[in-house]
Design goal:
The structure is a single chain. The protein has helices at residues 52-65, 83-91, 110-119, 133-140, 146-159, 179-186, 215-225, 289-294, 299-311, 317-324, 335-338; strands spanning 15-19, 69-73, 98-103, 123-127, 165-170, 192-197, 228-231, 241-245, 251-255, 268-271, 276-278, 287-288. The protein is an alpha/beta fold. The protein has a domain at 15-163 and 266-338: TIM Barrel. The protein has a 12-stranded mixed sheet. Strand 11 (276-278) and strand 12 form a beta hairpin. Helix 1 runs parallel beside helix 2 and helix 2 (83-91) packs parallel to helix 3 (110-119). The radius of gyration is 19 Å and the shape is globular. It starts with 14 loop residues before the first strand and ends with a helix.
Length: 340
């Protein structure tokens, strides 16, 4: 045991994204449209979810495969109770260099942010799809006010959960008019806004290519207001292409999964809330790791099982879809279930 692995395209396993719940208090149209995730929607029973102890054990085995970064996701991960306790358990694992959290920040009080920081959380990424009140409420589709999310961001900053990244999924004709307002709001801060092309994750969001605003357009738009220039990536496989304002007032990121796919150096695996392993954000099927775990598999057996999955991996959905310029006609797992 304890040997890093590579897949069929020679991509290592470095990042593990762990979904803590399939529930969320927002109903964003590109992720959990209200028409399909209404009051009668059946979410996972709590007994189906991985326990904190199971998550921690699996994370430890994943480090033997080469994982060094963990990201906690959802749904909305802050819905899961006592996640600071999970963070503390994960932080105690040898060889983990970074633990982060992706959240909509609606539930991020100062007390919770401080508890997460004290437990060992390094940083957070906040999903915020508009800074204009009407735009943001349209995007979250539950009437949640943008001010409360900004308070959550401020709480994270006060707790030292930095650098804070702000993710804005851009849909042409829906919230693209708010790009400049978003950039302007966070210019001059240490926060990094990342503009994300609208992706065909899952099958419920009604994705259309004409609603994708390519990152090049976003860059041109922002550059016309405040000149920007490219910055070298922080590490191999970094998802966002970095740009900084030439006047020194911060940086932005562009995530171009549709127009400029980055499958070639993807080192990410995803673990769903009930313990299925997915080797691609656009995967159709997951591998039932929880079943192996609850059958009493040893760490060595789990290592062999997970290594076998990764070594057979050949996923490159975004590259294939980009060549076709349309979604591939397959059933894909929903983003709310697997995390972004």
């Amino acid at each position: 045991m304890s040997a890093p692995v590579s897949d069929q395209l020679n991509r290592p396993l470095r990042d593990l994204r762990i979904s803590l719940t399939d529930r969320c208090n927002f109903r964003c149209g590109y992720c959990m449209p209200k028409a399909l995730f209404g009051t009668n929607h059946a979410f996972m029973p709590r007994a189906e979810l991985l326990t904190f102890e199971e998550i921690t054990r699996l994370a430890g085995v994943f480090t033997q495969l080469g994982v060094r970064k963990l990201r906690l996701t959802g749904g909305e991960p802050l819905i899961r109770r006592d996640i600071d306790k999970l963070v503390a358990m994960l932080a105690a694992i040898d060889d983990i260099d970074d633990i982060s959290l992706t959240t909509n920040a609606s539930l991020l009080s100062l007390e919770k942010a401080q508890a997460l920081k004290a437990a060992g959380l390094n940083r957070i990424t906040v999903s915020l799809d508009g800074i204009d009140e009407a735009t943001f409420q349209t995007m979250n589709d539950v009437g949640f006010p943008v001010g409360k999310v900004l308070n959550g961001i401020a709480n994270a900053e006060r707790a030292g959960l930095a650098p804070i990244k702000i993710n804005m999924v851009v849909q042409r004709g829906v919230n693209d008019h708010d790009i400049i307002n978003m950039a302007n709001h966070f210019r001059g801060t240490d926060h990094i806004v990342r503009f994300i092309e609208y992706m065909d994750v899952g099958n419920s969001n009604g994705w259309r290519l004409d609603q994708v605003m390519p990152s090049k357009e976003v860059a041109t738009l922002i550059d016309a207001h405040w000149p920007i220039e490219p910055v070298s990536p922080n590490y191999l496989g970094e998802v966002a292409k970095r740009y900084r304002y030439t006047d020194g007032r911060g940086e932005i990121g562009l995530i171009s999964s549709v127009s400029q796919p980055f499958c070639g150096d993807c080192s990410r695996a995803r673990l769903s809330a009930e313990g299925k392993l997915f080797t691609c954000l656009f995967a159709s099927d997951g591998h039932p790791v929880r079943d192996e775990l609850r059958r009493g598999a040893s760490d060595v057996a789990l290592y062999d099982y997970l290594a076998g999955i990764w070594q057979k991996r050949s996923d490159r959905y975004s590259q294939i879809r980009s060549h076709q310029t349309k979604p591939i006609n397959t059933q894909k797992i929903e983003m709310s279930y697997i995390g972004g």
